[in-house]
Amino acid sequence: MDLIVSAATQIATPLTLLAIVAGTLVGVIVGVLPGLGSVIGLTMVLPFTFSMPQIPAIALMLGVYCGSVYGGSITAIVLNTPGTPQSAATALEGFPMAQRGEADLAIGWVTTSSTIGGLFSVLVFVLAGPSLAAFSLQFTPIEYFALGLFAMTCIAGVSSGNLLKGLTAGALGVLLATVGNDPVTGDLRFTFDSFQLSAGIGLIPVIVGLFAFSEMFMRVLTIDRDGPPPEQMRVGFRMPPLAAWKGRLGMLLRGSLIGSFVGALPGTGAATAAFIAYSEARRASKHKDNFGKGEPDGLVACESANNAVTGSALVPTLSLGIPGDPVTAVMLGALVVQGIAPGPQLFANHLDLIYAIFFCLIIVNLAMFAIGALGASLFTRVLRIPEPILIGLILIIATVGAYGVNGNPFDVWVAFIAGVVGVVLRHFRFPVAPIVIGMVLQPTIEMSLRQGLILTHGNFWAFFERPIAAILFVITALTLCWPLLRKGYARVKR
């Protein structure tokens, strides 16, 4: 009890509270701007932490981390331009709601779901941290390969009723992700002797092109001919009524559980969690026919999942000293600078620090809700800008976002080409989200497959001898076959 009181006292200082609010606000802004994301946000504020006391420095980093994960959903809803990769799933349901004039309600859904998912992960972080970290150690490359395959089943859920086109788009994403260095041998592949392609095709420029550029190109072609006029769109934040949550609390809990579990696995990340949760929501929802048309179930699932990653991702980082992704790697470096040595002894010898981080995460998520609710009117105010001016501004911001990731003009060309390809795909009714899914999951699937084959001396069938992997393979098969089984059962019943 004394440790809890001591941790609460350290958090309740003006400097720490200011760091939480400032960090969360900066994180939301970074998330809103396409092409930036959590890593850039953390590296921007990292120099400021060097001269700060330990707890305020941690609070600032946590605020940027959580705020940036949430912020990407705002532009995904308002402009169909995901600010971060994990927000691509949010755009699938959020933007159709904005087109119906319900941008404020969509932001209400994602803000509430994000906050609850984040708070849920905090409980997981404190109550199940050491146990979850120990369980994650049982994941070998074989289990990661099985998890990656299961995540690929999301393509079936976002293919708009045409699985063949969705798989084709997913295969295109996988192909794009293979360009560059071979992760095992280091050989160059699919570069066609181009020096620019030797570093691979960046995920962020492709996302900016497929969503932002293609959306703006489509708007140029159909300007003033579809969707409600900007002046009729509601701006701000509208809290979903309590009656609307009936039947969706299970979706919220399921998404939070998925995000907490995936976040605790090193090397996965929020984008994987969001797409898995979206696919599961589409399978289990009572409103599955409304998916792709602005269904809140999809928003609740993916937003609770990607924000639940934030707390659980700290579990392997703090308890094992293993950063799960570039975001937690930057945070790990910041913790080391502050004199904190992550590892198995941290939970045993520095429990007061763990409780301080626990309280920080709670306040960060509450601050995120307040900033989202109070600042939503500013974020959605762009809907009232005349459409030609809005298109120009978005193209400028998207171009800066594509360029700013690596400072490479080639990325701007990648985004432009991806935008043209996105227009062609949309014209022929190919879904573009599977391309992002393929690019996000391909590195994990390929690397874990090849490492697994090395461990089993090239025997793929040995993968099925691993209990966790076998269970994931079975779940994947059932997920893919479930529509056929359901139709067969209905036919037999008739």
Automatic annotation (TrEMBL):
The keyword Repressor does not apply. The keyword Nucleus does not apply. InterPro entries: DUF112_TM. The chain crosses the membrane at residues 20-46, 58-79, 116-137, 144-164, 195-213, 256-278, 353-376, 388-406, 412-428, 467-485. Residues 17-437 form the DUF112 domain. It comes from the Bacteria. Keywords: Membrane, Plasmid, Transmembrane, Transmembrane helix. Signal peptide: none annotated. Pfam families: TctA. This is Tripartite tricarboxylate transporter TctA family protein. It comes from Martelella mediterranea DSM 17316. The lineage of its organism: Bacteria, Pseudomonadati, Pseudomonadota, Alphaproteobacteria, Hyphomicrobiales.
